[in-house]
Amino acid sequence: MKHGAHRIGLLAAALLAGCPASAAPLALTPCPDTPNCVSTEAQGEHRIAPIRFEGSGEHARQALLQAIAALPRSTITHNEAGHVAAEFRSRVFGFVDAAEFRIDDQTHLIRFRSGARRGHYDFGVNRDRMEALRARLTPVR
Q1: Cα separation of 56 and 40, whole Å?
Q2: What is the per-residue DSSP string for 64-103?
Q3: In this structure, how many other beta carbons lie within 10 angstroms of the beta carbon of residue 61?
Q4: Taking Cα atoms as reference points, which of 139, 111, 134 lies closest to residue 53?
Q5: Pairing, β 96-104 against β 37-39
């Protein structure tokens, strides 16, 4: 048993050795069945088109950070190469919407998901916010 555990540990170390610790996960968090979320990876009513960019992924990330910071009541919660996350609070009740962004240097696309943390309806706020970000970023050069 001792040797089996050792082999599993070595296998896990070998598998993880090729993955940088800062690598962002490729998949976005799926939208729930409630109508308060949009995602570039969803189907149907939750679907929204990704944001195209020109130039480098790093330039796109910097432009995305500036665009998010320009929105009211926004907070960047995660910022690393290829991955940004943010929270947005509603003005009146302080409800929190969470957004995550994946910046793909190969396809020149920013994929994202934005959804309310609580509640059922968002009255289109997440979609409107993501379209406002798209307008600020298009075209990112």
Answers
A1: 20
A2: HHHHHHTSTTEEEEEEETTEEEEEEE-TTT--EEEEEEEE
A3: 22
A4: 139
A5: unpaired
Read off the tokens for 88: 């947005």
Q: Specify whether the CB–CB gap between 94 and 110 falls below 8 A.
A: no
C-alpha to C-alpha distance for 92 and 75, rounded to whole angstroms: 17
Say what angle helices 125-137 and 57-69 make with each other, to 10 degrees. Answer: 130
Structure-token pair, residue 24: 């962002």
Structure tokens at 65: 């950070």
- Token output for 75: 């907070």
The owner of tokens 């679907």 is 47
Nearest to 117 by CA among 28, 52, 31, 47: 31
Count H helices and E strands in the chain, helices first.
Answer: 3, 6
**pLDDT digits (tens), the chain, 141 positions:** 444 444 444 333 333 333 343 344 478 999 999 999 999 999 999 999 999 999 999 999 999 999 999 999 999 999 999 999 999 998 888 899 999 999 999 999 999 999 999 888 888 999 999 999 999 998 655
